[in-house]
């Protein structure tokens, strides 16, 4: 080919790439992570602030946007942010947990490069290392539908992030030391709404208008019930799935979960309680309140805050089963959400994961299938990329409960790319648990009391189960999910009960393909931090 023609082809090709890339906008964020004094429950604590804010700033984006988030670590210890529900497709290097990403050293920065590919909905970010989550550093993520993609409800008059969670007055360092000493955490001291304690949060609305609330439970362990005095909540979206628009008087939000509700300010003009209370914690129930303030309010809140469910498991289970996918609504693409018929796909494998608690060397530990996770000296994904031996072993945890006692290991489950698999979470303990899988959205096909058996599949919802990334497992119960393993990488499967996660109730799912095509997985980011046995390696030429 003549040189000038080759140059022309190269220019045209480059411009085509530029056109393709231009369709997906870039949004830039520059965040400084610092310690700062906070007083959410009236006591001074060391909080983790982002650009001076507690909670951190919201991330607003649109389907397929590229998010360039430069994080400066001004703490005195390593730090990472993770993105609860963001799938980081083909790119688990950016997931921001220690199994995938080297920590940002004190005084250094790292730029996350995320793409919210084929996603919509309500999620949140949080600090994943040590026990930083108990100090803040979390914030909301919203992914709006692209223009011309229909949304199954009119635009609300306002769209608000509501971050709820249990809270301790103790500093995160003291809580971590407590766990490192082999002890369980005490009962929390309170509940926060958007970083504020009792009566600290207020929301002003105009009579007759409808509003959207994106509610995420960013707490450490407790399921929380959310309600607004004299107002109904219409559920419209759960972790990226448009749902059947069922109306509830209150909503259980388990730890790690996100829900979008609509409510209409259709009551007489005055102030009303926003109430958040703990579930399954009787005899002690934590409650906090905020204020829904009508702009034409004739007076303050009156009477006691409305009560909610406390220990009723059946109430919560029935509500969970009523949360279903809206099959005719569009998701991130124009086609209806129901066009993917997950119930007609043959299963290729079943994993049964049973949570366990016990003592190892006289200290409290937790795990799945008798394995209590211990981090390796190198992030697993990075060790895998460089083929560094001796860091982890695929199959170091069984795909069935073993019935043996707890032991320590770096638990990695193997899975094949493009397999369609079933996970059964068996909870034989008397507490509710919440489980999250990074990199994926899965179908919650069933949940019930007792032991799961193959006959349990007869009651599965194979038509309109909700697709989400964090699911509850009720006490002495099981939950089953279906997931299409279409995202190559090393993905964290963990308890959202943060002390249990910290003390070993987590594993990594290695979704593997022998292919080296960019269509299946991206190479390590050019700016990736390298640590442990990968220190000194090259990423890629800039």
From TrEMBL:
Residues in the signal sequence: 1-22
Domain Plastocyanin-like: from-to ranges: 33-146, 159-297, 378-514
Q: Name one Pfam family in it.
A: Cu-oxidase_2
| Entry keyword set | Glycoprotein, Signal
GO MF, one term, reads:
copper ion binding
Matching PANTHER family, A to Z?
MULTI-COPPER OXIDASE, OS04G0561900 PROTEIN
Q: Which family does it belong to?
A: Belongs to the multicopper oxidase family.
UniProt name for this protein: L-ascorbate oxidase homolog
Natural source organism: Ficus carica
